[in-house]
Amino acid sequence: IICLVVTLIIMIAAVVASTFVRRMRSGDDSPDDRPLTAEESFIAALPDYTIESLEDEDSAQSKAFEWMEEYDGFDSFPLERQLQRFALMCQFYALSSTEDLSEDIVSALADVDECTWFTGSRCVDNMYTKLSLQSRFPLDGSIVPELSFLSSLNRLLVDQNNFVGSIPTQLGQIKTLKELRMNNNFFRGYIPTEFGKLSDLEEIDLSNNFLSGSIPSEIGLWDKAHSLVFANN
Predict the structure, then answer these.
(1) Is this model's pTM higher than 0.70 or not?
(2) What do you get for the CA distance between the two ends of the chain, in Å?
(3) Per-residue confidence band for 160, with pLDDT thresholds at 50, 70 and 90
């Protein structure tokens, strides 16, 4: 009897394991067929580099995610808008002047259209086509790779500031980008070879930084570019 019971348990375990493996291979490892929640869909859309940043509770990405959970909610906007608001909040928290924002300010941002968050920027159909981080006084901080989530962006203007760090390679994913100005900052490192993917790029200015190395041959793919400025690096 004991042998029969053990054999039955082994057979049941084998069936369960086989079913689990089939689900994993088909990409369905959920115990049921329920649809993903808005928050689960949002997390599933995040790239690996953002997920890694979320592990650091002091990162701009973690602060932006906490803001969405506490103030913004994941059911208020479609996924494309959620990613846009998250990316802009990441950039907002990456500015040194906004490290210690008051609760009143961050809660108020949840009730405001994100197209009004950055002066001089522009949206079409609620999606950013121009992001300007130019201000009366130079901004300090860094540029976050999540700006690549702005899938409709034509112009990215972050020049005349005190931004530090390297230029995020992920900006090369913004295929709609036509103008990129990052001049007069303190960027270091190389010009990303990933910029070769910016097939619509017409103008780029990376001058007056601390960039080093060679100019990547991938810029030869910019057949629409008419203004390239890399001076003083």
Answers:
(1) yes
(2) 81
(3) very high
Q: Which two tokens stand for residue 172?
A: 């090369």
SS3 state of residue 182: coil
Q: What DSSP line would sit under 88-143, residue for residue?
A: HHHHHHHBGGGTT--HHHHHHHTTS-GGGSSTT-EEETTEEEEEE---SS--EE--
d(CA 21, CA 19): 6
Percent of the chain at pLDDT > 70 equals 85
Q: Cα–Cα distance between 179 and 132 in angstroms, integer?
A: 11
- The answer to whether 91 and 63 have CB atoms below 8 angstroms apart is no
b/e sequence 149-174, b meaning 16+ C-beta within 10 Å: bbebbbbbbbbbbebbeebbbbbbbb
